[in-house]
Amino acid sequence: MEVSYKKIGTIAYPILISLLMEYLIGLTDTAFLGRVGEVELGASALGGVFFTALFVVGIGFSIGAQIMIARRNGERRLGKIGAILQQGLIFSVVIAGAMIALSKAFAPSLLERTIQSEAIFRATVRYLDWRIWGLLFAFVSMMFRAFYVGTTNTRIMTLNSVVMVLSNVALNYALIFGRFGFPRMGIAGAAIASTFAEGVSMLFYILYTRFRLDWRRYKLFSWAGFRPKLLGQMLGLSGFMMIQQFLAVGTWFIFFLAIEHQGERPLAVTNLVRSLSSVIFLTVNAFASTTNTLVGNLMGAGSTKQVLPTVWKCAKFSYLCVLPLLVLMAVIPGYVLRVYTNNWELIAASVPSLWVMASAYLLSTPGFVYFNAIAGTGNTRQAMWIEIATLCIYMVFVGYVVVYKSANVAVCWSSEHVYGGFLFLFSYLYLKRAKWQTKEV
After folding, report:
1. Alpha-carbon distance 434 to 292, whole Å?
2. H or E element, residue 140
3. Higher pLDDT, 25 or 234
């Protein structure tokens, strides 16, 4: 069973479009708030990273479900997939509810102790008061996405994302600036718009799956009952991914806090560069997610000899899509940054950091692809330890350069070279030398 470039593109392209469309939600927030003020821009960055630190726990769980679904799809045991999705939805709703409650109770006091600027702290809390409710909708949507990616039926994700983005853009404009009779809500309006858009996405997935998909093949709506053993198997895979995802974004949040202590301008610069980094990351992530599901399907079909060649093909395809973006950011950085703000002083201050960030993806691109291949084999424990080892090295570098040396923002962004380089090195060595071919899921 040889995987062609056409097959990779067929799966990756809808994932890429859906991820880029969803990215437009954050881009819309940043672009609109960049015209409100630097405090709002910085606060949305901190609030967004805090939200993402919780959000990625759901991503980690959905990756575990996606691995199981992909393996059953490769084995052609389609009737087993419905029970996996059902147990995943139950757990996702429970964990989202718990995270919302904990965030409401403890986030304000935690942020007050860690954010230096009083203005940014107040704006961040206003943002999270509304944004945190999006976890419930997002976690449910991620489980449906795991189903569609795991079964390589990714086309629906594009349409879902278009509907999601259009609703977000319209509400952002109305609520941030007070248009169409709505009150002017500023940063709170951005949070409400994003949360509403995620609710629209969840409803779209549910309705499409029920009325347009041949769900009987997978027994999606044939209630299988609560199955603690199956849920335990899913958590055996997902638990390590949940920890890994939380730690990865948690260290990212620490990076932002360290930058915030340098002042409002460095934080605003970092937020702009982060937003552009997300464009490249989502492109890479589309191929990383494709790698994950193809590896799972190949192993389910018993074609383990095709795993490494397929991973290399995904890495090359990812490079092909990423390099034009890197060149664009290197050649006309000012025009690219102007999408987010019309403050030319802020743009000029952001250009060096943008160049450093873009060059880091020469290492991060194969790093993410090979790392996700490990997860696709079902060896999520090893993937977690690779992530932890990489993050330890990354945090030592951040502590020295950002905190101890208080280097300028561009030098601080070189931490991405450290992360991407070591992630690629450790993942490549594992796939070349370890025994992962017989892993059962």
Report:
1. 17
2. helix 134-150
3. 234
How far is it, in rounded angstroms, from Cα 38 to Cα 275? Answer: 15
Helix (H, G, I), strand (E, B) or coil at 56: helix
> Residue 288 falls within a domain, yes or no?
yes
Residue with tokens 């009987």: 216
**Is the Cβ–Cβ distance between 230 and 65 less than 8 Å?**
no
CA distances (Å), 56 to each of 59, 193, 252, 373, 416, in order?
A: 5, 20, 12, 18, 19
% of the chain with per-residue pLDDT over 90: 38
How confident is the model over 111-125, as pLDDT tens digits? 888 888 888 899 889
Q: Is residue 439 part of a domain?
A: no
* Segment holding 95, helix H or strand E: helix 81-114
**Domain interval for residue 334:** 5-433
Contacts of 229 (CB under 8 A, 6+ apart): none
Contact 415, 395 (CB under 8 A): no
Segments in 332-377 forming alpha helices (H): 333-337, 344-376
Tally of domains in the chain: 1
Residue 440 maps to a domain = no
Alpha-carbon distance 327 to 199, whole Å? Answer: 36
* 261 close to 338: Cβ distance less than 8 angstroms: no
Q: How is residue 263 written in tokens?
A: 């002042």
What average pLDDT does the segment 377-397 reach?
Answer: 92
- The DSSP line for 369-433 is HHHHHHHHTT-HHHHHHHHHHHHHHHHHHHIIIIIIS---HHHHTTHHHHHHHHHHHHHHHHHHH
Question: In the block, which residue shows the tokens 């790392």?
Answer: 371
Segment 227-280, tens digit of pLDDT: 999 999 888 888 888 888 888 877 877 887 788 777 778 877 887 888 788 888
Q: Is the dihedral of CA 301, 303, 307, 313 positive or negative?
A: negative
Contacts of 228 (CB under 8 A, 6+ apart): none
Give residue for tokens 């994302």. 161
CB 260 within 8 A of CB 115: yes
**Residue 31, SS3 per DSSP:** helix
For residue 313, tell me if it sits in a domain. Answer: yes
104 three-class SS: helix
Block residue for tokens 């990076």: 255
Amino acid at 37: G
Q: Are 213 and 160 in contact (CB under 8 A)?
A: no
